[in-house]
Design goal:
Layout lengths: L1 H27 L1 H21 L8 H15 L8 H16 L10
Length: 107
């Protein structure tokens, strides 16, 4: 349970880094919302089909690990960059699935 708590906290901090401007832009820009949804589907598929046992692990743990890997490779980003959009998708998936395993359900 401790791993899930740490992952949830990390995702929450990531969401805070995206900030009000990023989340507001998502709420009022249909094209950005569509792009985030496409990224969410891609991330979900990468994790479901590329990580053995993904269907038995809390989604928030997989998603936090995935996002950390992205940030290790590219620490500089903005909410409207490719990485920023990908991170918004990760946060939305984490919010939707939380402790449940990932599924084909999107935000």
């Amino acid at each position: 349970m401790r791993g899930e708590h740490k992952a949830r906290q990390w995702i929450s901090e990531l969401s805070d880094r995206i900030g009000t401007a990023g989340w507001t832009a998502l709420a009022v820009t249909p094209a950005l919302l569509a792009e985030v949804d496409q990224h969410a589907a891609a991330v979900r598929d990468i994790l479901l089909f590329g990580v053995e046992g993904a269907g038995t692990v809390a989604a928030v743990v997989l998603l936090a690990s995935y996002a950390r890997g992205l940030l290790d490779a590219e620490p500089e980003w903005s909410p409207t960059s490719w990485l920023g959009v990908r991170l918004m998708a990760v946060c939305r998936l984490a919010h939707t699935h939380d402790l449940k395993p990932l599924s084909n359900e999107l935000a």
